[in-house]
Amino acid sequence: MGEETQYFSKDFEWEELREEIENDLSLRHHLLPFDPSAPSPSLSLSNESEAWKSFHNRHSTGRFFKERRYLLKEFPELLTCDADSKVLEVGCGNGSTVLPILRKPSPHKPNDFCLSDANKNKEVSMDRISSEGGQCCIGGVDFVTLIFTLSAMPFQKMPKAIAKCISVLKPGGLLLFRDYGLYDMTMLRFPPERRVGFREYMRSDGTLSYFFSLDTVRNLFVSAGFIELDLEYCCIKSVNRRNEKHMRRVWVHGKFQKPIQSCPSSAPH
Predict the structure, then answer these.
(1) Dist. CA 217–CA 231, nearest whole Å
(2) 240-247, Cβ contacts within 8 angstroms, sequence gap of 24 or more
(3) What residues contact 83, with CB distance under 8 A and at least 6 apart?
(4) Span 230-245, pLDDT tens digits
(5) What is the pLDDT of residues 76-131, one digit of tens each?
(6) pTM score, two decimals?
(7) Handedness of CA 180, 181, 185, 187 (dihedral sign)
(8) What's the CA gap between 8 and 235, in Å, rounded?
(9) Domains in the chain, please, with CATH?
(10) Whole-angstrom distance, CA of residue 238 vs CA of residue 248
């Protein structure tokens, strides 16, 4: 998609897709409750971190991950913030989110922070663009981007990750969220034996993928103390040009705000 292409989010209605999936008996296993007492012996959540390290080692050229140029249209706040704004990317360190922001003639300096692959991917990204680093979290940041990251971790670890995100935001700061949505085509491709939780699956390489409903996202972020500003399914049709196969993609788009602290004179709640 060209950089100047308009941003769209509604090629089809999610409710129509939901009705179709729920009436398809071949996809019934995606709807059933998960029984944790009977997991597949070949699937284990204990090594998900190592699985992602192996994944990034296999795709270490820095060209595997395409830049997400649509983000500046999806989240125009990144273009209109002032010169002192700080943007923190919580991701995998490959630069696909932060590089499009850096390429725009905007006054702020985003910083890419990664827990496991920062050093390796920093070297990879330096041949693509250079930028000033810094202690971006000191004093809080204005924006946190959480793009296709939360779904890669076990569901039970998500609340802790979100708590860390809100802890580094300034009061009034925004968390910008995009991730896999319920009934995305990639979810429907998983066979029953790949389920490791409710709406949670393990790929053949050991990496995880969770598929979010709006209610799940809302509960996770509101429980962490965020205020919901925007939350919707992005339903996009695309075509695989090699086989002419039509695909229906579903992502969740969200904007959440850290509450502005009450004035000292305000009555306690």
Answers:
(1) 8
(2) 247/185
(3) 107, 108
(4) 999 999 998 777 777 8
(5) 887 777 767 888 888 765 555 555 565 565 545 545 444 444 344 434 443 433 34
(6) 0.77
(7) positive
(8) 9
(9) 65-257 (3.40.50.150)
(10) 7
